[in-house]
Amino acid sequence: MTESEIIDGLLARDETVTREFFFSDSAKSCKPLLMSILAYVFPYPVDYDEAVSEFYAYLMKDDGRKLRQIEERNTLFGWIKVSATRFFIRKRNSREGTQSLETVDIPDYQANDSRSDPSSSINWCIPARYAYPTRSAPSPD
To answer: What is the Rg, in whole angstroms, of the alpha carbon atoms belonging to the chain?
Structure first.
């Protein structure tokens, strides 16, 4: 099957094409790609069938609007890689309640905080294997 046939089959909700594309171990299946994305995004085990069902529902929302956005210059697997990674990262963040970096408020530390002491800041900002050369360096005073 060509990529356009796969897209047309997914849009037509053809069960054979959907099963072959998402769940088989054939060369035209995206199962290995999606499994590696799930392993990369989630630090805990995720049920493949459930995750793919959610991703498929996302793709088919609004009569397959997402699938119709694939342009000729994109490969299907490249597009699936980007879309699935973004989808699963958003899913992970919404489940864990994390925020993006733009919305996180970084608190101001007071002068009496132990982090304001330069010698103690090494303990929390530099990994232990790099701390020794920093501690043994002469002070600029």
So the answer is: 23
